[in-house]
Amino acid sequence: MTPSTFPNGRPLLTAEAMRRADAHAIDTLGLGGRVLMESAGRAVASVIAKKYPITDDTRLLVWCGKGNNGGDGFVIARCLLDRGARVHVVHMAAPSDQSEDAAQAFAALQQWARESPEGHRLVVEHYGPDTVPRVLSNRWTLHVDALLGTGLTSDLRDPIDRIVDAINQDPAPALAVDVPTGLNSDTGARMGDAVQADTTVAVATPNIGLQMGDGPLCAGAVATVEIGIPPYALARAADDTGCAFATTDDAVRRWLPERPRHAHKYSAGMALVIGGAPVYSGAPTLAARAAARIGAGYVQCAVPQSVQGVASTHLQTIPVLGLPEAPDGGVQPEAALEQLHPALDKADGVLIGPGLGRAASTQRFVHKLLEGLETPAVLDADALYALAQAEASPLDDSARRDWLLTPHEGELRRLVAADAPPPEGSRVAQTQTWAARWGVHLLRKGMPSIVAPPHGPAYVGSTGSPVLASAGTGDVLAGCCVGLLAQGLSLPKAAAAALHISGRAAQRYAAAHDGRALVADDIIHELPHAWHTSQC
Predict the structure, then answer these.
(1) pLDDT, mean over the chain
(2) pLDDT-based confidence at 390, cuts 50/70/90?
(3) Rounded to an integer, what distance in angstroms lies between the CA atom of residue 92 and that of residue 106?
(4) Structural domain boundaries of the chain?
(5) C-alpha to C-alpha distance for 476 and 522, rounded to whole angstroms
(6) Domain 3-246 is of which CATH architecture?
(7) What is the CATH number of domain 253-257+266-530?
(8) 52 has pLDDT over 90
(9) What is the SS3 string spanning 421-467?
């Protein structure tokens, strides 16, 4: 399945959602579990043969558990034998204790050994106390980890934990089938220990744990293989709690609006950025420039009067509105709202918060602005602080709002401090629960960043990079969100596209420079290239 098969991005599934997609293919479409296992094993074998070209010296050690992941391993072993490899299979259970499909795959492997003139290239043994030291006294081309697969919820126990440790200590690389053994496929947490794979081959579509927590550290490079489960079944499964869509170039490109021939600056989307304080004049200017670079036809920036001149210097093509200030150095609520009224009436999207400051008057301004706001809005930075400090938070009721909140982990903890205990489940499931509880859209920043609406599918950014750990990059992201929102994208897609495109911009910069040198301006400069049709 190519990325274009999935218009919302690549599905990332929990173990339970993947089981349901499997069941649909087996029970509804009648493909049969053994058919899917054979398809999976052959596809993984092809990935191995491409990555590690088979020669007479290729020696593969295949570790097979008792479930269907082990059955995939038996098929992989047989297919690689057909390609000329020498294969040693260690299985953890007798056929009577294996799943039905795995037992059939094991029988096929044994029959191959009996009938093939090359049967001497296969060694099959049942795991025993001396297996690990004995087999690891040999040199191997590759370990194939087909021990447990998905669904692990408790720490590894003996002997699997000793096998995992041995694989990690051996100099030969490891390739995991579905997920590295020891990794929670829903949360990305190590369950005691986990295989440190050089490559993980995701069958049908990746489990979400490969993108969360320790998942990227354990999985290595992730390849995805098709086995016959239809794309619509995988996409439908991604609507479940705890699941998401990973952003892709193709999906984001589909979402981006085309300008008609008769377009003008207002029809191309008007974005209003409200932010800034005497010591934070740069934040709103970064956000406003990003909104313009991401394609908003008209951007206006509103800042306190004392920083209007500084902001205007940096925003030569963007008009800057000065807001009346209060004695405490913040924004005077009533006068500022009156000043903003014409711009709010015209705006297609509003960003509130970058560098706005935390003066008491500013917090009152934010609360009054939100009380009557009818325009879809992005709430960032100090607007989130004002929400968290309110005596009666607007998040206390469950009315659905066209608000996108963009907290990092510290800001999110502040927002939920007076709420119920954190919901159970993965970061994705938690984010979905808070979004539904508050009736807002959440962009939870981190590695990876997650977008969750009050209802509907979540998105996971797939282009993040450590180079984004630089001051001002959050302001650029917020500006990209409001710029895309102003152009007509829905709040969740505006947030997901902004994540993807700004991440691509950071990757482009890091490919040509030392990524440690990146500053927020560099992302803005790269935006026109990053969202060009050749990239996204």
Answers:
(1) 93
(2) confident
(3) 12
(4) 3-246, 253-257+266-530
(5) 10
(6) 3-Layer(aba) Sandwich (3.40)
(7) 3.40.1190.20
(8) yes
(9) CCCCCCHHHHHHHHHHHHCCEEEECCCCCEEECCCCCCEECCCCCHH
